[in-house]
């Protein structure tokens, strides 16, 4: 676990007054406050760090301990024990004590995670050292949880049930077909517990959908490129193509050009929360030229060329 | 509207230890909705998260009402742009 330079975090030097600390903290809190930086994990992390720095530096007792031991914080307890023994045997008095209270700490149940203090903080000041809330009152419901769920595109073609473990609890939920990459859904009442009978918080799940198929997707429409041999493209014919729901036979018109698009209505992706409604599958033909021509084939193509010129 | 989903403003003031004028001024600025049923004012429970955010910004960061209005407006724009950005990123997948 690394030493954290709280002064550096608040962009202060060690001689900073309490007013300087307050000013620096407020300035940075306004910049990185999670309410002002929606969906910005970096800002959230930075806010937690400056919150922790403020927790220590704005409390004279904590600041004293931090300043005294600095990088040797791991030996703080040993030093204190030695001092106590010294004091008992007539040595210099030590005024160290518990670390309660604190000022300006945040306690949230908003749509972002609660402020988490670093291992360094917990180790140096103990897990009970952080000030809980600013004492202004409590919330109406439990904390909202945020979770990210990675799924394959093929998984969200149909609605399915999945069990998630959130904060040690198993939650079985139905993932609706057609959910989009980056979409967030709210599961009411699956967040943190409420206090004294208050409602539970909500669970927000953001989907990260990985495309494991050969199709490309835009909302409910799918796109794919299909290779077509020269002769079918020229003379027309039948072709079997893959769709998400299986194979389908297509009639190819004579003289089909490369890049020609064909829309297969209703063969796309399911529309989110619209039962039995599907987007379209758009196929783009890619006409492949024959290679490794035999002498006879070359001859015939030359003949065709002559007919055209 | 289900009365169970409504929270009396008096209860909100007591719970969050805020003055009634704070809730009223949020309403007057159009930042939250207040519903009146039989002379009692309520806030819908779905609006509590928004209220809490405004409450934190006001009390934690010392942002005044005008600032809250500007922030709410800009946050809406940020969210709209984030949504648009996500849609465009998903669309970009078509050309990769």
Automatic annotation (TrEMBL), chain B:
This is MerR family transcriptional regulator. Pfam families: MerR_2. It comes from Salegentibacter mishustinae. It comes from the Bacteria.
């Amino acid at each position: 676990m690394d030493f954290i330079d709280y002064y550096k975090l608040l962009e202060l030097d060690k001689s900073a007054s309490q007013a300087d600390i307050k000013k620096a903290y407020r300035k940075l809190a306004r910049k990185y406050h999670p309410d002002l930086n929606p969906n910005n994990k970096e800002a959230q992390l930075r806010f937690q760090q400056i919150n922790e720095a403020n927790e220590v530096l704005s409390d004279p007792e904590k600041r004293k301990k931090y300043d005294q031991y600095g990088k040797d914080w791991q030996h703080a307890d040993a030093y204190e024990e030695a001092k106590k023994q010294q004091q008992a045997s007539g040595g210099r008095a030590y005024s160290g004590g518990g670390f309660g209270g604190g000022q300006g700490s945040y306690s949230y149940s908003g749509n972002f995670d609660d402020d988490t203090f670093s291992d360094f903080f917990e180790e140096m000041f103990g897990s009970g050292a952080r000030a809980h809330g600013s004492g202004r009152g409590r919330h109406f419901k439990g904390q909202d949880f945020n979770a990210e769920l990675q799924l394959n595109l093929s998984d969200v073609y149909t609605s399915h049930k999945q069990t998630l473990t959130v904060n040690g609890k198993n939650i079985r939920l139905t993932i609706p077909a057609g959910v989009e990459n980056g979409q967030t859904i709210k599961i009411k009442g699956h967040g943190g517990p409420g206090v004294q009978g208050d409602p539970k918080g909500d669970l927000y799940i953001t989907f990260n959908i990985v495309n494991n198929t050969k199709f490309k997707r835009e909302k409910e429409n799918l796109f794919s490129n299909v290779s077509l041999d020269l002769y079918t493209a020229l003379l027309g014919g039948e072709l079997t193509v893959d769709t998400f729901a299986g194979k389908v036979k297509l009639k190819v018109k004579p003289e089909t050009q490369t890049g020609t698009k064909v829309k297969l209505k209703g063969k796309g992706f399911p529309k989110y929360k619209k039962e039995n409604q599907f987007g379209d599958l758009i196929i783009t033909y890619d006409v492949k030229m024959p290679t490794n021509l035999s002498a006879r084939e070359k001859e015939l193509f030359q003949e065709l060329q002559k007919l055209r010129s | 509207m289900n009365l169970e989903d409504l929270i009396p403003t008096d209860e909100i003031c007591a719970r969050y230890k805020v003055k009634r004028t704070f809730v009223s001024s949020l309403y007057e600025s159009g930042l939250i909705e207040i519903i009146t049923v039989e002379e009692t004012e309520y806030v819908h429970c779905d609006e509590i998260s928004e209220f809490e955010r405004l409450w934190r910004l006001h009390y934690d960061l010392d942002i005044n009402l005008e600032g809250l209005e500007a922030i709410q407006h800009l946050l809406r724009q940020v969210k709209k742009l984030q949504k648009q950005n996500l849609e465009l990123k998903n669309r970009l997948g078509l050309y990769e």
